[in-house]
Amino acid sequence: MPLPHVVALGGGHGLYTSLRALRPVSESLTAVVTVADDGGSSGRLRAEFGVVQPGDLRMALSALCEDTEWGTTWRDVLQSRFVSDGDLDGHAVGNLLITALWEHTGDVVGGLDWVARLLRAQGRVLPLSDEPIEISAVVNGPSGATVVSGQVAVALAEGHIERLSLTPSAPHVPPATLESIATADMVVLGPGSWYTSVLTHFLVPDVHRALVVASPRAVLTLNISDEDIETRGMHRADEVEALRSLAPDFTPAVVLADAAEAVDGRLAEAVAEWGSQLIVAPLTAPDAIDRHDEAELSRQYAKACELVMASGSRVSG
Fold first, then answer.
1. Tens-digit pLDDT profile for residues 107-138
2. Total count of domains within the chain
3. Most exposed of 132, 159, 175, 220 (fewest Cβ within 10 Å)?
4. 241 shares a domain with 187
């Protein structure tokens, strides 16, 4: 069976993990990155230059670097951060380079493609939107329902997230991003910060519609215990319900979960009611409690791909 063309959506370390796991089992790989981060170096650059947040884009580019001395050296340079008593303290080199290329080219997608060439990346990185976005949430906490704005604030808010919104409400999506979803043989969502990296995609109308069309080719990767501070204390079945509530017209073909998350049957019941197929495997890294095992995740993506292909959902020629 030919290897699939895959698009993976998310942000941060979760997307980095899925990209590394997908590389061995895909013919071509595209990352679509949330770009809602407003903390650290990314937040400072957004405030100063009005650019899309570069940090998660940098992470995705690093995940796709060529596995040679050239690629890994440039990856390490992009990921390194300045430590000083001056204004550069905390800035990631890659964030500065990406911002400089955007200033030079005037093109968000084109600038990312230039960085990909530098890394000899084995794939492409695209933004969810090519204009800055801010995520807000209604959080039901100890003091009742409050509105919290900004990715960092939403992630750290104490309480249950009840509703999400974006500013602007319908940000512009690059045509290349929509095309990547439309033409992929398999569309992978998650793992990652559930509300600010995974569900965010469904808040963008154009991408929401594209994902609904791609539902028969979609694979949802659930988090493992304590991996996501936004959903700490929640059951994985609750996360499924949060997605169903936000996007009732979306049903992925496959839901992939760690074996420890499915022992009580709640998740299996929720996924069956959704109309998806559940794959359960020991996905936790052997030396951690909050990180996916990259090799095992890769094997399960290959299995999920076989299920998607067998359903007749392949779109590429």
1. 999 999 999 999 999 999 999 999 999 999 99
2. 3
3. 175
4. yes
H or E segment and range at residue 255: strand 254-258
Per-residue pLDDT, averaged over 255-268, amounts to: 92
CB–CB of 29/123 below 8 Å? yes
Q: Are residues 223 and 260 in the same domain?
A: yes
| 103 domain residue, yes or no | yes
Could you tell me the residue range of the domain that residue 261 belongs to?
A: 1-27+170-317
Where are the strands (E) in 67-168, listed by range? Answer: 124-127, 134-141, 144-149, 160-167
Burial 155-165 (b: 16+ CB within 10 A, else e): bebebbbeebe
* Angstrom distance (rounded) from CA 52 to CA 231: 26
Start-end of H helices in 203-264: 205-213, 236-246
Beta-bridge partners for 136 = 149, 165
- For residue 66, with 0-12 CB atoms within 10 Å meaning exposed, 13-18 middle and 19 or more buried, which class applies? middle
Structure confidence by residue, pLDDT tens digits, 187-222: 999 998 899 899 999 999 999 999 999 999 999 999
265 φ/ψ sector (left φ>0, alpha ψ -120 to 50, else beta): left
DSSP at 162 = E
